[in-house]
Amino acid sequence: MVTATFRFYEELNDFLARPLRRRTFSCVCPNAATAKHMIEALGVPHTEVELILVNGESVGFERRLVEGDRVAVYPKFEALDIQPLLRVRERPLRVMRFIADAHLGGLAQLLRLAGFDTLYDNHYPDADIEALAAAEHRIVLTRDRELLKRRTITHGCYVRTLKPKAQLREIFDRLDLAGSAQPFRLCLMCNAPLRRIPKDEIAGRAPEGVLERHTQFVTCDVCRRVFWEGTHWQRMRALMDSLASEQA
Fold this sequence. Notes:
single chain, 248 residues, alpha/beta, 3 domains, 7 helices
């Protein structure tokens, strides 16, 4: 066994036992334990970690800890450019695509509203989420920290807030999504692309009053729902505009 000291920063402390938060503490580690193993043993999912310094030097998850190591663990940096340092992942994901667990159906719909490809099924077992995330290079969104500790999940976010709109703001802030949003291009129910459809092709698929008041419509070719710029669209447009202005 070896003894190392640890210090976790900012929101990573939320995952630690209360006596260990926001302070330096010693921890006994198994021989040949890696930084990743000990970080997760202390309760922090590896997907929440952006930078690890051991004795002041940037290291990857695979670094084996030895007697006397000083380990500092950091979350995603919002204002500090750490490009010159070694991050714990080889590269960021080029395209922001998500998969949400069973507790985040409302967030999944709002991310689709913002134009982000987001898989969701409240019957997905954890193993399927892990497999899809790896195969399709998706960011896992969950309130289950144990899911984020699965070995092949490399990109994930533990969602702290409880209400869907607050969750959307949290994810937008954390991943700086405002500049990548393309609202109203995906079906909220199917995650499939929407396309414009001529008014004369939607007879019987929308209420008569809607046909009288509106001229522009889009449809989903998977579920065949038809959408128009009604009061719900206006509320959603206001939400998207507020997110863009908050990150401007």
